[in-house]
Write a structure and sequence with these properties.
- With about 140 residues, the protein is mainly alpha-helical.
- It has one domain.
- The chain contains 1 helix and no strands.
- It is rod-shaped and about 200 Å long.
Length: about 140
């Protein structure tokens, strides 16, 4: 009876051991799958991390290029503003000179007009004197004939 009971206990223990062995195999397989999935996830993570690092580097380069572009454009704008101010000053100076030259030209024109009028008046007077002299000479010639 003890032997039968020991046999039954041995069979139960063997069955339990096989059950535990099956469970352990199942756990080991699950562990292998999880380890494989973890390795794949790590690879993906490393790839993603590499891509993220590359993207970060690219964005940093683009940002630096944009900053350099802004610096260059700012310098160009400052230079253009200085040139515009210089051109404005030159335009004001030229406007002032033109105003002075225009004033002198107007005064010269008035003087020349006045001188021309005086010359015309003298010319008319000289012509009248010449006509009178011619008439006088003609009259004297007529009288002398």
């Amino acid at each position: 009876a003890e032997a039968a009971q020991a046999q039954a206990e041995a069979e139960a223990a063997t069955k339990l051991a096989e059950e535990w062995k099956s469970r352990l195999l199942h756990v080991a397989e699950s562990n292998r799958q999880l380890a494989s999935e973890l390795a794949t996830a790590r690879e993906r993570g490393n790839v993603d991390l590499t891509h993220a690092a590359e993207a970060k580097s690219s964005m940093a380069a683009e940002l630096e290029a944009a900053r350099n572009e802004v610096r260059m454009r700012t310098a160009q704008a400052t230079q253009a503003q200085a040139e515009a101010e210089a051109a404005k000053g030159l335009a004001e100076e030229m406007k002032s000179r033109l105003s002075r030259v225009s004033g002198r030209a107007a005064e010269s024109s008035r003087q020349l007009t006045s001188q021309l009028e005086t010359a015309r008046e003298r010319g008319h007077a000289d012509l009248a004197h010449a006509v009178e002299a011619q008439s006088s000479v003609t009259a004297e010639l007529e009288a002398a004939r």
